[in-house]
Write a structure and sequence with these properties.
single chain; mainly alpha; two-stranded parallel ribbon; 22 helices; globular; binds flavin-adenine dinucleotide; binds ligand DLZ; binds iron/sulfur cluster
Length: about 500
């Protein structure tokens, strides 16, 4: 049984038929998974530490684990030679793996099994609440795949916050109430997510990452992520107790120096499978039922996990591998280095990238409406945006990063996942954050020295993509506003946008 770095389930499906006399577990730390894209040091330390803790847990349960520690002298470095070593030593009749979270890894494993002349059994992963087959059935029955329909079906199927066949409180959706921004006084005091001090295993891994992957982006100075099952459960309790109550209201707000606000910071432990999504959903529902959190907040949180997270995974397996190359808007600019370094005058990007550097975390709106928005408006290659995302976020795994970046944020699938592009000007960022106050640009201005690049690029995005998007009735108002611009203004926008794009092209990060 091959267990991958993000398959650290406490009760995995492979364990049901596992016979310790006959079967063995192999877990491999491999250099190529850490370098195929340069990856944040926090991400590397998180995966390696969680894998080592999981190995210890399995061993304590009496399961023998053959584990490739990257620093062992016999380690052959990359995945292919290392799995060949284990196959040579253990001589298994057959290989088995749970469905990986990455198509690329599934291809590698299938090729490895072929090379070794072994059958590869693919075990469905019960971490997820909607299997790949179930999602495909759901998709086959519909002309369009709308997340809201899928989500309502999942609420009914799992009887989550239901009142008979109706949603509790009579409404499925509280998004309307969940879009507040902080006023001039800022967010005030918010209890930060519980920090988990690195233990001996994590400290060893951190030293290894500093030594072996010194060129990786980011810093380990603030590493405090949960890396075990017990810590994952503690992180969930901490969120429910201290932040869930206000999760909904401030879900879209951003504030300098407050990376987490009322967000849960549970994506890493969920994606490593240290926490089951139903545990998070049940804990949130219980908080609502016993009056510790309002319905709107709990519905907002449940929607993210039971709705978006499962839907995104379904789309990944429905659309891959072609999805990776989707580029409906023909965006070809290279990703600029400032997405890694934060060295730009755009304060919103500087602050968000600083957060990434320190914590490998940005919340949803920073991802979608600051960093992703810049890529969309400027016309950065969606695949490079995805690769950038994989390299900078601790919680990035292909199945979840790819559809969110390619589909939701870059609209590269032409509207399969999102009904319209998430395009906005600097005014949106100004409304939802305090970033613009500390910026040399002015969010309302689209021409002149102080013009906000987002605002210039926003109008230019609408002009450039008008033909492609003109039939989208949800964009009617935006095009109407574009029509109010004079010819001279449109020329000025185009010239300034071209200059911004030239500057971006001159700062490519990838060779
Ligand atoms: P909260 O705001 O507390 O939300 C609770 C949970 O809901 C999250 O932990 C996550 O598991 C789930 N969730 C919320 N939105 C989504 C979504 N759109 N897709 C899947 N799950 C969701 N999430 C990842 O886990 N990994 C990624 O690589 C990733 N890439 C993203 C890229 C872009 C461009 C965008 C717009 C979103 C991306 N997301 C990704 C979704 C979401 O932004 C993160 O899950 C969330 O910000 C993680 O922080 P949190 O745990 O504090 O989330
Ligand atoms: C992200 C990652 C890293 C850094 N290292 C490993 C590793 O050494 N071994 C491993 O099995 N998985 C690793 N991962 C996770 C993989 O890149 C990939 O996301 C999963 O294998 C998909 O299920
Ligand atoms: Fe970002 Fe524009 Fe605001 Fe500056 S003015 S912080 S670039 S949105």
């Amino acid at each position: 049984m091959i267990v991958l770095g993000d398959q650290l389930d406490p009760e995995p499906a492979w364990l049901d038929p596992f016979d310790p006399e006959r079967d063995a577990v192999v877990m491999m730390e491999v250099r190529d998974e850490a370098t195929y894209i340069p990856q944040h040091k926090i991400r590397l330390a998180l995966f390696f530490s969680a894998m080592r803790h999981y190995r210890d847990d399995l061993e304590q349960r009496g399961i023998k684990v053959f584990y490739s520690d990257l620093t062992d002298s016999g380690h052959r470095g990359a995945f292919d030679p290392e799995r060949a070593r284990w196959i040579g030593e253990l001589e298994p009749d057959q290989l088995a793996v749970m469905r990986p979270g990455d198509c690329r890894v599934l291809d590698k494993l299938q090729a490895a099994a072929r090379d070794a002349g072994r059958k590869l059994e693919l075990i469905e992963d019960r971490h997820f609440l909607c299997s790949v087959d179930q999602f495909q059935e759901h998709a086959a029955q519909r002309k369009t795949l709308v997340m809201e329909h899928f989500y309502r079906g999942m609420r009914r199927r799992y009887n989550v916050m239901m009142d008979g066949d109706d949603p509790a409180g009579g409404r499925w959706n509280f998004d309307e109430d969940n879009r507040k921004s902080f006023g001039k006084d800022g967010p005030g005091k918010i209890k930060a997510p519980r920090a988990f001090r690195p233990d001996e295993i994590t400290r060893t891994v951190m030293a290894m990452v500093e030594r072996e992957f010194a060129e990786s982006p980011g810093t380990l100075e603030h590493f405090d992520y949960p890396v075990t099952r017990r810590q994952a459960r503690a992180a969930l309790r901490d969120f429910v107790e201290h932040r869930l109550e206000r999760f909904g209201t401030w879900q879209d707000a951003m504030a300098t120096g407050h990376p987490y606000l009322y967000h849960s910071r549970l994506s890493c432990v969920l994606n490593l499978h240290l926490l089951h999504p139903m545990e998070a959903i049940e804990a949130a529902e219980a908080a609502w039922r016993d009056g510790r959190a309002p319905l709107g907040a709990v519905e907002g949180f449940v929607r993210q996990i039971l709705g978006w997270r499962e839907y995104i995974r379904g789309v990944y397996w429905l659309k891959m591998p072609d999805y990776l190359d989707a580029n409906e808007l023909e965006a070809h600019l290279p990703a600029p280095a400032f997405l890694w370094t934060g060295e730009t005058d755009m304060n919103c990007i500087r602050q968000s990238v600083q957060q990434l550097h320190d914590h490998a975390y940005a919340h949803h709106i920073q991802r979608l409406m600051v960093l992703g928005l810049f890529g969309l408006l400027a016309g950065i290659d969606p695949r490079q945006m995805h690769e950038w995302h994989m390299s900078m976020y601790a919680d990035a795994v292909d199945w979840v990063s790819l559809p969110n970046v390619i589909g939701m944020s870059q609209y590269a699938d032409g509207g399969f996942l999102a009904t319209k592009p998430y395009c906005a000007s600097g005014n949106y960022i100004d409304k939802m954050s305090d970033y613009c106050g500390g910026c040399r640009y002015r969010p309302k201005e689209f021409e002149g020295d102080r013009a906000c690049p987002f605002t210039t690029l926003y109008w230019d995005f609408l002009s450039r993509n008008r033909n492609r998007l003109r039939h989208n009735h949800r964009m009617g108002l935006q095009f109407k506003n574009l029509d109010r611009k004079t010819d001279a203004q449109r020329r000025a926008i185009r010239e300034k946008a071209d200059a911004i794009r030239d500057a971006v092209a001159g700062q490519a990060y990838f060779d």
